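Re-run with default settings, no changes from the original entry. Doing this only to confirm the output is reproducible before filing.
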Amino acid sequence: MESDEIKEGFLCPICLKDMRSASLLQKHFEDVHSDDKDTLRQIRGMFGKAKRKIMDKIDNTDGEVVNNLTQDGIPEGSGNRGVDPFLWDHQEFGVSRSRFREFRDIRDAEIDRFVVETNKILIRLEKLLRSGVHVLVSPSLSARPGRKSLEKSLVPWIADSEVKFCPICKKQFNVARRRHHCRLCGGIMCAKCSAFASVTFSVSVLKLDQSGSHASRKWIGQSRDDSEEAGIRTCLSCMDCLERYDKQEKEKKAKPPVVQLYEKMKSSMAEAETLQPVYIKMADSINLGDIQYDLEEAAQVRMKLVKMYETVDILSKKIASLGMQAEKPPSPHTLKLQKKIRAYATGYLQENMFTLPNLPPLDRIRKLQEDRANSLARRATEEKAQRERAMQERLQAAKMQQHKREGSGDFNRNRPPGKVHTGRRTSPESGVGNGWGPVPVMQGSSPDPMLQQIDIIKSYIKQAKEQHKFDEVDMLQKNLMELEAEYTRQHQKR
């Protein structure tokens, strides 16, 4: 890689011919290589992309203008000086002319110049580093012979006879004030108006230290110049381009303090949102007198939640006061953003922190638990009484049905013998809907009416099975189970 020749300029990507300017390169490609449309679109968008990036940077700096006008539109610090502005004559709005297009053209030209100059400086800086003229593996080694001739071959130098004065400080060159050449642009300046770009800084700007190769590690070694000072001699203009380029690259990677604080605040909000439903469930359960959750556990969860909300409040206050004490205050857009973040955090705390349910004291919890236990006991007693009333109603209905059947049986005995229908001669189909007769009480049976009712329901179940009425069988069996359970409960109380 080091042996490859590094070229600079507006090179044609196909024939590698240097066209000296962007317009000539585009015209050359449209005339000579018009068939390759994809490469033509790439060349057209290459300068536009770099221009948009730099315009975004300039837009950010243009937004940092502070409005120093008062509410009346008069600049602060300037008085009326004894003249009432309301006594001035009204002045009609005259002819105006927009300078926006002129400003845009000048700005575009300046951006293009900066992009071209920066790219040219970066290419020449990489050439110097790859040539190894400014790197010594050991400080005991002498300077490389023929270093200046090699530097002149990489970057063309201006002749000494062409420059009589320093272009920066405007002082004449003499024996005491010597001429020095910039290794990146080839210009001439005096020693005071020159700067030195260290090899470490140059490697970091070109991102050569990210490759981790042996050559990149060698470039970070000791460097020397003809004045025995470390670094590559440059003019102030080239050094300013390198520093601006390095600053822009670092700003792309580094997050502003506002973004860092905002991300921490959002992280605390997310943790609080996951913990808040848990605490609300515990607090509601404890306030209802439930014994599922412990008071100490709920208090610990509440403390964690309050600390998260306090963190959100502290971070939002830091964001709102960020840059207020600095010499250069933030831009109006930045201040507006910081105030919006603080207002958002305040609304979030009012909606979540101030509406948290409180935990009752210990004696209140005991009373709530006793009330809940009594309420559950009353509910269980009411449900049991309802079940007993329902069973009594079913027994009364069964007795009424039994009396009706007994009355119908006496009526059949008074009929003529030819019209009496017995249960033995009636088929199951003919007895549907006619009900069943009770089993007569046998001698020696228990005098307990509860046992008699149990025997009657058993006889009903038997008759329903004979007539294949299985739905009524299920209902009667449930009644029989409830009746037997009630009979067992009464005897246990005795």
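The beta strands are 180-181, 188-189, 194-197, 232-235. Residues 362-413 form the longest helix (52 residues).
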